[in-house]
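=== Per-residue structure ===
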Amino acid sequence: MLTKAQPMAIALPRNARSTGSLAVSPAIAVGALLVSVVSLAGARLRLDGYGLLHSLPWPYYVGLAGLPLASVVEWRRGRARPLLLLAYVSAFLLLVWLTPYVLEGTPRFRTSYLSYGYVDPVVRGQGLLPRLFIYHNWPLFPLLMAAIQNVTGISPLKMMDFWPTVISVLYMVPLSVLLLMATDRSWPAERPWRTSLKATLRVDARWVAGLWVFVIFQWTNQDYFSPQALTFLFYLGLVVVLAHTALRREGEFNGASGAATVILFTLIVATHVLSAVVALFVITALTLTRQLKRPTLLLLCLLVFVAWQAYAAAPFYEFYGHRLLQTVFAAGDFLQSNVSGRISGSGAHLAVGRLRVAVTAIVFALGGFTVLVQLRPRRRRLWRPAPAWRALSDEVRFALVLLIATVLVGPVSIYGGEMLIRTELFSLPPLAMIIVATAETRRVLTAVGAVLIAMAPLHIVTHYGNELYDYVSPGELAGFRYIADHLAPSKIYGGFPGGGFLKSATLRWRNSTVPNANHVPAAPDFLEPNAHNWGKAPGGVYVAFSRGDIAAATLFYNQPHLIGDMQRLVAHNPHFQAVYVTPDYSIYRWLPPPPRRRRAAANAYGVHPTAKPARAGAYATGSRAGGAKTAGGRTRKATTPTK
């Protein structure tokens, strides 16, 4: 007689269950990465006020959240594997940082092209020109980049293309060392060069959480091809040396650490002045709190800084000194440039700006939460500052001093509207140290991981929210090359940064719609381009209009028709001649009228010299990426190159 088979429970061997648990986090990570890569392969560039948000399908964002989820699953195991966790955060970084390159195919971030303008004269053999280029007063970046280009033969576009990804990967090296010191007091060994890889892998893997914090909350775009991006790498190296001295040698420098401090600080001073100020504040704060015990080293660094500004950078201060005195510690100017000037413009740009502020507040709150968790057992004495300070670990105290010194540099608003952004970037390493040093239980680490999972998809909006402006189209690149090949020497108004990219030493330019400009450009700026303080620079005067100018006016001024109105005025003005007209970039040569007729010419087109342009709703704003159709059609001697 047949009987119905009964279900049978099979007990898996212990090693089989362990094998299954070992495979969970890699399976999640591989699946997440596969979903994002496949989604990216089918994505199409569709830019709007939210940047890349609508260019990427929703599975891409699911994959982004899956990578930190895999890390949380790994942390929940009894003994996490650092190499796997490092692979997860590295995969996230490469995926997100290479996404614009896959979608756009051109170097992003317009200021990168301007930064290459500092390198270009050195590559062409014209040398350093400190009175013409600000950053030639701190010349290490242009000298080093020119040397790399001459040795490797790499093109400027390729160098700018991959610079953000390469420099961000390099940031991970000193940051990993810093986080390893924050989580394990036995690391590094007394002789770090003999520390084996096996010993490093035995360190508690929660240090990788600090890398996740840095990568996910690093939305500042300050890793573009620029002196400040290179300087931040030197700065992280300096912080590693200071942390090792404070945490492993009780603040006492030896010959190697003292020399490394002076060398790294000198490299920072020779590259970027604001980063040097931050580093000087940090060394001062650590010395005042007795975490570093050699005041003479602070005096030596101060001497290096002052000597460089007084001698090597003297041309800059001769030209800019008066403005510098007006803005240092100018709280009103700082708040206007860094807060109200940033959170303004179109509705979408407002939303992106507020999201960035919220995300920054979240990472600071996360650091504060983990500190309170560490202080909880001693909460009865926390109302007194001294006991609360002593209750913190040495690692947290070091990071807090680092963080406070960084924040105090903010009011020194010599950096204009990017000062607060730079402060956020420099605050991330100490915040990451605080979080990993205080996340001593798996419960706290899981809470940190939950925040990382939620923030990972939002990173696309915070990082690439201004991509409508930051994207440089192939048509704009062709316009930049036309300026260099056919117009040098000349003076270019508008079309940022066409006149500052190639052959930058023979060109002069003024930008019309740079974010946080002193005023919204008006008709006289375009119709009277010779009034822009060109000095005695040779060459003719040209007015340029680009897709990026339209994007800037749309995002930052909430005036999408502004540039179209101005281009129409110029195209119909008899004192301008079209020399290059394409959908993404157009150039008009100014034919100066007799002085008595200039004001009459402006009024003939219904423009008062001090009036702002009227909106023209009939003007089309062009492509989905924010490009504009050429106003006025093709005029005499206009050049329309084949794309």
User: Anything to note?
Assistant: The two ends are 83 Å apart (CA to CA). Strands lie at 490-494, 507-510, 540-546, 576-581, 585-590. Residues 1-18, 604-643 have pLDDT under 50 and may be disordered.
